[in-house]
Amino acid sequence: DARVTQTPRHKVTEMGQEVTMRCQPILGHNTVFWYRQTMMQGLELLAYFRNRAPLDDSGMPKDRFSAEMPDATLATLKIQPSEPRDSAVYFCASGLVLGVSGNTIYFGEGSWLTVV
Amino acid sequence: QKEVEQDPGPLSVPEGAIVSLNCTYSNSAFQYFMWYRQYSRKGPELLMYTYSSGNKEDGRFTAQVDKSSKYISLFIRDSQPSDSATYLCAMTGGDTGRRALTFGSGTRLQVQP
Fold first, then answer.
1. Who among B32, B43, B105 is closest to A108 (CB)?
2. Nearest CA in chain B to A40
3. Which of A52, A114, B12, B64 has its CA 20 to 30 A from that of A18?
């Protein structure tokens, strides 16, 4: 049963600390997304990659957030320094997008971040 | 105004009722429409996928897209307590050529036994 795997599942950290979240996309998928979910804003796109190249990170606060794909099996989202307003659930999702077809994506279980 | 609008609910119905969930959108370039179901403390899971206008049925679920009205719906027949979750509409095919999904804020559904 292929699935997107995210670590850590839960993280509590102090303001100012660095937080790194990791994602293993479904094998063979060529597109990886990072979303953030809060009660107030719902699901917001932070960044996404196609064939490991960043396509759009306009939703990400550039001063403190960074997203990378060191290889096809790993995507990372880093927050440095973290702030209480970063407390949210961070979802990674992956999909296989070929030309005009394939717009379905599959989500991981999320990384629940609390910054105190 | 958000690109995708969805009533947050909560929507409470008795078991066996027909449920209607809806989204409206403003971007006429959207062509691919999806419904995701999200249980508490879980990731969204894909429920239905529709391209362009029309209906699609899968078991107790029917998705409808009316592109002329920029309106999509999800119907759940014979609703069950296990259907209690948040339902998120999502769409893509925007004029920027982006393939990332734009989500509605989600409607929380509670099916009472």
1. B43
2. B105
3. A52
